[in-house]
Design a protein that fits this description.
Length: 456
Amino acid sequence: MLKIVNPATEAVIREIGEDTPETIAAKFKRACAAQKAWARAPLAGKIEAIGKFKGLLAKNIDKLAATLTSEMGKPITQARNEVNGVAGRIDFFVENVARVLDEKKVLTDAAQKLEEAITHEPLGVIGNISAWNYPYFVGSNVFVPALLTGNAVLYKPSEFATLTGLAITELLYEAGIAEDVFIPVIGGASVGAMVLEMPLNGVFFTGSYATGRKIAAAVADRMIKLQLELGGKDPVYVCNDVDVQAAAEATADGAFYNTGQSCCSVERIYVHEKIHDRFVDAFAKTVEGFTIGDPADQKTYIGALTRPLQIEVLDRQVADAKKRGGRLLTGGERAARKGYFYRPTVFADADHSMELMREESFGPIIGIQKVKSDEEAVSLMNDTAYGLTAAVYTKDRARARKVLAQANAGTVYWNCCDRVSPRLPWSGRGHSGIGSTLSTYGIETFLQLKAWHLKG
Ligand code: NAD
């Protein structure tokens, strides 16, 4: 049985039966049997169902946000933001899917009586193994375009977002998606591994680098489509010409929103020496102003950590940073209350000898390091195996472009951070993953190509 725990109270909310190899094989069989008819069904019907799903999310937002908060510890206002945010992604996919699916004639040569064209076909039955930190976003980035393009989906929500996964499933069915076309698989890591044993036509994974490696190894022999959206150690560089207070507030939000549990959370900050002390002061004051507490309370900004395991990671990073000369400005320990709460933590005088500046923290902690020049900042920003996002704060657009052009990251930000757009590809480099969701690339990724050479 899978125990669903409220991380803010440590109480068990529900116990749910997990899938077994037999139930997963039966689900896979059902999906295979249904997929071809779903692929042939008119796009208009698929769009209509996904449109209804969008409406149901809005209609049920109070219940959905409360469920997400209860199983994940996400502050309720942020849970509502997430559920609301799916609408923009659905709109993008719905508006662009027909254009992506259209046959593309690339040559019509009357003299040679030759035509060349490209068509797109769904992959088939795909497995979607998902993370818990933004279950609506990372889930819908996959299942919405996958369904619109005619795939069937075996969807394994994270064991830390199971109730949300089931709520999503119910609403998709209510919206008209057939029960054999989208099928949830319930359980933890071992159940995820069982899903991979099915002869899937594609695997779309969101989670940690450590698990991503295992997934890649598990499917390596099969030559199927594999997409991995993994972790990050996302840097921000704050130049000497900024409005210090505004930059401190914006980057603190980028680091601590969702209690620091975002793949694109700001995880390390480099600050030009000319403004360093003022920035650190303003940053620490901003963080000290954050309200930590009951995630169900509208006023809460820092909720509970979803997994108790993360407390060990944070404790280890704090001890290591202290040992290596880091200056603890605030936090550095669990909050004195029941539940998996950790005080928002800020270290100044951080450097790359510290785990805090090298390993993904995935929690409410940040290291700040002083730099002398843009060159030094770029070199430190790129001193990582990850490559999800990188940001720079400066008034000078040309300077920002120069810095960001050198950043080895799939997404770059000027005067913003921790931001995702449905119109832009979400793709990591290095240990941050392979492939892309969102944008038209995030529709194409669920399709296989057919090249037509037509003579006569
Ligand atoms: P995780 O790797 O622990 O688990 C992710 C999923 O994989 C879960 O559903 C889990 O049950 C399953 N799983 C675990 N071991 C498995 C195995 N051996 N075989 C098959 N499935 C297995 O990650 P998490 O803690 O859920 O999520 C946090 C991580 O996800 C962070 O590193 C974060 O940066 C990353 N993330 C990345 C993105 C992105 O878009 N790049 C988005 C959100 C989260």
